[in-house]
Amino acid sequence: MRDTGKGIAKGRIFVLSQTEVPESTSIVGGTLYIYGYSARVLMDSGASHSFMSARFASRLDVTPDCMSYILDVSTPTGTSMYTDSVYRSCEISMAGIPLYVDLIVLPIRDFDIILGMDWLSAHRARMDCYNKTVDFCLPDGTTFQFKGDKGFWTPIISFIRASRYLEKGCEGYLAYVIDRRKEKGLSLEEILVLCDFPDVFPDDLGSLPPRRNMEFIIYLIPGTAPISKAPYRMAPAELRALKLQLQDLIDKGFI
């Protein structure tokens, strides 16, 4: 980390990727919308701050702010990551209620947003990890419940872990999956741009297009033929100079 003259604050995060989610977990996940984009959101009571993945941040047309300090985030692997970029007052809608959160940019995999203890405690959240629900009691007395997606976690493991399972005698299967829905292709109604011009793409083309008031014609000079010119990687001037040098070597008997 380069010396920027800023102070350093400590933070922690327990989950960086889906493979690091423990079996007995204290987290709830689901899908929410942030800046109009669908985001995979993780509510993690083990994270000290709230984070946004750098990949998700690259999709936004919003410029992040620079914090007055550098956040030293300890990871599950024992290493540290440093960041000073934050998106302030990001709106998250739950149960039709707009909530706001400051999201610190971090290179997270598999998840777009992690809502940590700073945000959960500010909104008086109570997590039921078994039922995958979070009860909120806002300072103004408003209460609501967020239901997480129980099928949120895709059972994905790393190649190294899969190899260890196979060495221990576990069975492995190779599957080749084809999505037949893609074979049908998109209909005109599913393409948003074409929906704006239904008269250009009618269902039935009964005849040739009608005659227009102005005919589109390109007049050619009589006797004009397509230009036949072999493509070369060298410029014409360089090619001529090379040919002269080769001919000179041929005349002198070197070639």
UniProtKB/TrEMBL annotation:
Q: Which InterPro entries match?
A: DNA/RNA_pol_sf, Peptidase_aspartic_dom_sf, RTL1-rel
Q: Under what name is this protein listed?
A: RVP_2 domain-containing protein
* Listed Pfam families: RVP_2
Please, which domain of life does this record's source organism belong to? Eukaryota
